[in-house]
Amino acid sequence: KWQNLVKTIKQISFKDALEQSLGGLTASLITPNRIGDYGAKAVYYSKPFRSRIVVLNLIGNMAQMTITTIFGIVGLSLFINHYEIDVNYYSVTKYGFILIIVFLFAVLAIKQKRFKIKGVSFERILSFIKSLSLKSHITNLSLSVIRYLIFSFQFYYLLTMFGVDIEYSKAMIVITSLYFLASILPTISIFDVVIKGSVAVFLFSYVEVNELTILSIITLMWVLYFIIPSVFGSYFVLNFKLPQNEE
Fold first, then answer.
1. Which end of the chain is more exposed for a tag (fewer CB within 10 A), N or C?
2. β-strand partners of 205
3. R_g over Cα of the chain
């Protein structure tokens, strides 16, 4: 996915894309909402490329968040409807009103030329996004969907490995709700297991899955997808060399 994004401005090998992704993951572990990933990937390139690399990383993350949100809203809606959760509609309305106000202020801020995301003006970001081909955007979204489906299925597969007897459709309703709720909560990547674990225990309690089983699965996925890759990424971080000026 990262190789596909970067090749819109510069050809890189799969090995280079892998190194940058793992290095970015390692750098993001101790930063809120993986902000360190932006800077880590940018320093692999010389100055003329860095602002565009930051925007490409933002586009990739936005695509992933879009897919997570779409699946998550559908899953959460089915979850609330099926399990008849006692929703405090007054609180929901109150927070919804606050979100609308925040959104309106964000729209006003975006219209200001001084508004920036990750140090890059919104006007430049929008212009750059429009300059990318439709094929690049479709590929980016398609890879985001595939990535999401892989993560979701692996969670279900681990449930079966731990001996949990649950229908696939029922499990996916809970899993998509879990990923959505966990993604909108601000956190530091290294503590991601705590957030996901708390949300997972709450959601899976409705389908009567043992707390220890859920916490074990969340911890195992955290080790597989954060800790082990960050160990490999630390090698690239420690052996990192600044790019040559003639790049």
1. C
2. none
3. 20
Find how far residue 18's CA is from the centre of its chain: 17
pTM attached to this predicted model: 0.81
**What span, in angstroms and rounded, lies between the C-alpha atoms of 174 and 170?**
7
> Which residues touch 110 (CB under 8 Å, ≥6 apart)?
122
- Please identify which residue in the block is written with the tokens 């297991």: 193
Q: What is the pLDDT of residues 61-80, one digit of tens each?
A: 999 999 999 999 999 989 98
Give the number of C-alpha atoms closer than 13 A to the C-alpha of residue 110, restricted to the C-beta side. Answer: 9
Rounded to an integer, what distance in angstroms lies between the CA atom of residue 51 and that of residue 2? 16
Burial grade of 142 (CB within 10 A; 0-12, 13-18, 19 or more): middle
Q: What does the CA dihedral 209, 215, 217, 223 come to, rounded to 10 degrees?
A: 170
Phi/psi of residue 59, each to 5°? -60, -45
